[in-house]
């Protein structure tokens, strides 16, 4: 199926093709073919996640991980990292917190750089919040922000200062036309975007 479809139509048949290949994955012996199928499982999982079909995407990511070779963190780092990060997020969304924690631990243990752990930290913080472990979630968020070189002011916020800042921003937006407002460029600073997600 996969070999007979045009590149522009691949997304239309991704689930059918990957499901059929996964049924026969035990007969695949070549590491290159396993890696290729793991990449297709990543694509299918991402598409399933975009459609909010979390149990399906978790299955694709899990299958992709199973297809990876023994030394996959060394030999196929980016693919391993993406499959594990997405799988942790899918399991969190499915409420399988123990499985998500296990996958997050693998990311923390095997990832090379701090930035490679950010998605896992984000999932873990959301999971702690869902478990009503708010102090732990807050402390972890502050730790991550500190590692990103950002700091938060501690202590109580001065209400009058916050109110003045809010009113100033509101006045700026109220003075803009619709065209001016919708013409504001989207933020492109990746560090700032990452920081704001925490």
In short:
With 198 residues, the chain is mainly α. It is built from eleven helices and no strands. The chain has a domain of 112 residues: Serine Threonine Protein Phosphatase 5, Tetratricopeptide repeat (Alpha Horseshoe).
Notable traits:
Serine Threonine Protein Phosphatase 5, Tetratricopeptide repeat, 11 helices, mainly alpha, 198 residues, 0% strand, globular, single chain
- Gyration radius, in Å: 21 Å
Alpha plus pi helix count: 11
Largest sheet: none
Uncertain regions spanning at least 5 consecutive residues: none
Distance between the amino and carboxyl termini? 42 Å
CATH class of the domain at 1-112: Mainly Alpha
- What general outline do the C-alpha atoms trace? globular
- CATH fold node name of the domain at 1-112: Serine Threonine Protein Phosphatase 5, Tetratricopeptide repeat
Q: What is the name of the CATH architecture of the domain at 1-112?
A: Alpha Horseshoe
Percentage beta strand: under 5%
The SSE string, one letter per element, is HHHHHHHHHHH
User: What structural class do the secondary elements suggest?
Assistant: mainly alpha
Could you tell me the mean pLDDT? 89
β-strand number: 0
Q: What level of helicity do the residues show?
A: over 70%
